[in-house]
């Protein structure tokens, strides 16, 4: 651990709450301390309310905020006197506790306070920091956990036996803190959960956290449990696309909805997956119980998804018998797959969720292996994990439900995605919740979007090998392909047939027709495994039903592609793949329509530029966004019983009509 405190940076933060933000972000920058919303921080402040009364307020991290990026608005201000009274109650359900916290908030639009708010309130220190430090969690996941923590920290730490977060934990901390605290106390360890540090200043509390975690790391090093020996592994140089797509399909069926499956094939994950004791050490449970919401209690080792489902159902039924009230079973599909050939697969309802799973389990791999070196990794009993997975508050969220975007968990692939219609299609699909792979020969495709749900790949679609490689990379990233927008193509300069060279003809056919044939053929096996059925939308042209002079090669290539689409619809219907076409006309916000070209074309027709853009029956302009929205809709339920349709999008073209 290294302290990131910087006096010059800290001087910019003028208030107690601002300094709370500063050190919270320092903690959040280190993933071995907190991950994806984990951890909590707070500060106690005396301030005047609107009627001039001085109140004691606890500012505690709000639900949904991440320490790495938290702002002042991410802290919920809660009145301390009421919190201290709540801590004295003999019992309080978690839903009642949440309600009580909300009634004592000083700002109505603040996020919901952390479920550990009462715990922060009862600690008699101005600043309180709480992390899930890997080193500490490793030590508390061993058989001799209490003895080891005592050996490391002596009387500097109060030790709290494991109890799940919420009101009961706060009450236990009140009791244990009074028993154990002394003049040297600077922190608290919650067994199998994390570590607290306290201080009268933000710097003191933060640097005590760094010091305490460093002690735990040093202890692991002293006991030869820090360096993890990795066995030599050879990363398999084989195509895994169809294997991953089939695995994703099985997991999606088990879950009852499409999932994103992200391959994490590294030396670390392969070495872990190929351990001889993997079936023992990986099945003990998560590093800390709250990870169960993301990763399930255990990963699937191997690829027997149905076997995992049966084991999960048994786990649910066994522990339900000990539960205080009835529970609704969540989906029984795995969230982590450990396999000697694949390494690790992380699974989530969307790309962000899968990424969080990957991050958490990458840290869990280290914790498990270090705990094993320290005498044996030993997680909490399954009943404790079950209690968190089926926590009252989590069950309330499940019952509440809520709408998710229609393409959540699905993967879309767009060709010619760097600009124009393709770029707009990417945006429309992302808006609907899909993970999107954009292909383009233009290198700018890699930076088109920054989110975890987009992958931009440079690909020359006239190169069969490049297509196969792009599909392999797409499936390794997201697990499969559900939707394809075939948009890539070229519109050459006008040329009469008498002047059309064979070379130009073949070039246009190669890009507009042949490349699409190859792409359809290569993507077909993946679309067959789409959980909701595969979908292809072909961006055709008005020139299919109404060709124009000077565009022989373009018109013929698009017409041939249209015919190919119709044949594919006939052949692939049995595979639950539907294929439809859009025939746009006059989409002027694309690269081929420069201001100069527009002006020239408009003059040829004796029109202004605006008149030329709306030269159709409805007198409207058709934009890339319009085409993209129709393409996305064709992939949605509105068109789920339609295939081989050809839909004009041209504002009404008299020649087409």
TrEMBL record:
GO terms for molecular function: oxidoreductase activity. Residues 19-220 form the Class II aldolase/adducin N-terminal domain. Gene3D superfamilies: Class II aldolase/adducin N-terminal domain, NAD(P)-binding Rossmann-like Domain. It comes from the Bacteria. The keyword Oxidoreductase applies. PROSITE patterns: ADH_SHORT. Keywords: Oxidoreductase. Belongs to the short-chain dehydrogenases/reductases (SDR) family. NCBIfam families: PRK08324.2-4. This is Short-chain dehydrogenase/reductase SDR. It comes from Crocosphaera subtropica (strain ATCC 51142 / BH68).
């Amino acid at each position: 651990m290294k302290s990131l405190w910087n006096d010059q940076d800290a001087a910019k933060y003028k208030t107690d709450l601002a300094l709370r933000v500063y050190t919270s972000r320092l903690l959040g920058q280190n993933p071995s301390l907190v991950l994806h919303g984990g951890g909590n921080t707070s500060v106690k402040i005396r301030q005047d309310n609107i009627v001039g009364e001085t109140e004691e307020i606890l500012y505690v991290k709000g639900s949904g905020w991440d320490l790495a990026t938290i702002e002042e608005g991410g802290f919920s201000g809660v009145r301390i006197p009421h919190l201290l009274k709540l801590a004295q109650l003999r019992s309080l359900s978690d839903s009642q506790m949440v309600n009580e916290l909300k009634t004592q908030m000083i700002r109505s639009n603040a996020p919901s306070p952390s479920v550990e708010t009462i715990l922060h309130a009862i600690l008699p220190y101005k600043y309180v920091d709480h992390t899930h430090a890997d080193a500490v969690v490793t030590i508390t996941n061993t058989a001799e956990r209490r003895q080891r923590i005592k050996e490391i920290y002596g009387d500097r730490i109060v030790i709290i036996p494991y109890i799940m977060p919420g009101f009961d934990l706060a009450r236990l901390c009140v009791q244990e803190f009074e028993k154990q605290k002394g003049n040297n106390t600077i922190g608290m360890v919650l067994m199998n959960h994390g570590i607290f540090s306290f201080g009268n200043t933000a710097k003191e509390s933060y640097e005590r956290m760094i010091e305490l975690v460093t002690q735990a790391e040093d202890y692991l090093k002293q006991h030869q449990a820090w360096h993890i020996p990795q066995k030599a592994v050879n990363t398999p140089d084989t195509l895994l696309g169809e294997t991953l797509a089939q695995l994703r399909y099985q997991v999606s069926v088990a879950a009852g909805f499409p999932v994103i499956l992200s391959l994490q094939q590294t030396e670390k994950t392969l070495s872990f997956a190929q351990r001889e004791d993997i079936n023992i050490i990986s099945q003990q449970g998560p590093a800390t119980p709250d990870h169960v919401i993301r990763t399930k209690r255990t990963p699937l080792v191997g690829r027997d998804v149905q076997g995992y489902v049966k084991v999960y159902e048994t786990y649910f039924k066994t522990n339900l018998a000990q539960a205080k009230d009835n529970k609704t079973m969540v989906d029984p599909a795995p969230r982590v797959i450990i396999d000697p050939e694949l390494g690790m697969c992380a699974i989530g309802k969307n790309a962000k969720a899968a990424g969080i799973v990957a991050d958490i389990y990458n840290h869990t791999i280290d914790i498990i292996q270090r705990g094993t070196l320290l005498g044996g990794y030993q997680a909490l009993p399954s009943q404790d994990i079950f209690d968190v997975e089926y926590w009252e508050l989590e069950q309330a969220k499940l019952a509440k439900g809520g709408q998710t975007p229609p393409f959540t968990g699905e993967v879309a692939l767009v060709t010619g995605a760097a600009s124009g219609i393709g770029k707009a299609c990417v945006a429309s699909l992302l808006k609907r919740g899909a993970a999107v792979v954009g292909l383009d020969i233009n290198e700018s495709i890699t930076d088109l979007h920054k989110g975890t749900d987009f992958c931009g790949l440079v690909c020359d679609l006239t190169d069969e090998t490049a297509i196969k490689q792009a599909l392999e990379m797409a499936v390794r990233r997201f697990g499969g392909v559900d939707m394809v927008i075939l948009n890539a193509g070229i519109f050459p300069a006008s040329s009469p047939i008498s002047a059309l060279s064979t070379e130009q003809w073949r070039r246009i056919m190669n890009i507009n027709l042949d490349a699409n044939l190859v792409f359809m053929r290569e993507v077909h096996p993946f679309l067959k495994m789409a959980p909701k059925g595969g979908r292809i939308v072909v961006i055709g042209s008005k020139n299919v039903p109404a060709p124009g002079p000077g565009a022989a090669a373009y018109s013929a290539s698009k017409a041939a592609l249209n015919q190919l689409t119709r044949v594919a619809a006939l052949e692939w219907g049995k595979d639950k793949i539907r294929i439809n076409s859009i025939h746009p006309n006059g989409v002027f916000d694309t690269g081929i329509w420069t201001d100069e070209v527009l002006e020239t074309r408009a003059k040829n027709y004796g029109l202004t530029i605006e008149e030329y853009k709306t030269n159709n029956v409805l007198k409207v302009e058709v934009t890339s966004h319009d085409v993209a929205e129709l393409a996305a809709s064709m992939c949605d339920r509105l068109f789920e019983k339609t295939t081989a349709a050809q839909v004009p999008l041209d504002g009404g073209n008299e020649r087409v009509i």
